[in-house]
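Chain particulars:
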Amino acid sequence: MAAKRVLDLTGGLALLVLLSPLAAAVALSTALRSTPSERAVLRRRTVAGLEGRPFTMLTFRTRGPLAALPLLLHVVAGRMSLVGPCPLSPTHRECTGEGRRRLSVRPGLTGPWQISGRSDLPWEERELLDLHYVDDHWLGMDLLILARTLPAVRRRRTARFA
């Protein structure tokens, strides 16, 4: 697990530095497009973290993959991981019963659900992918998922706009 945290910390910091100009542009664009009553640039949502500890997850109030840029702050802070199960509300049914074992790892910015079809997957299949990850993850699997994430996001964006 120490190697995973090192990957999260170094990868998260590198991505934050590299993508900070883009994050600033998204924040400015979101603020300029908003009406004065909804100037908030960030959306806040409570999710279950490691061992079920809730935290407030921040995303940009925009659509698409750029909304996730603030999640890198959570990765660096240790509340999230670059790779892990999909973040869920603490009251979600998957955070109880047998699904509670998903809380033994940090939720991820990406994961098997992201590279396997994301919202096109039936809920049960996404749940199985998350639990398989929790039970069998290792650093090599994380690196493979990270390598496949950007192409998966690009394919979906291209398909939507085609």
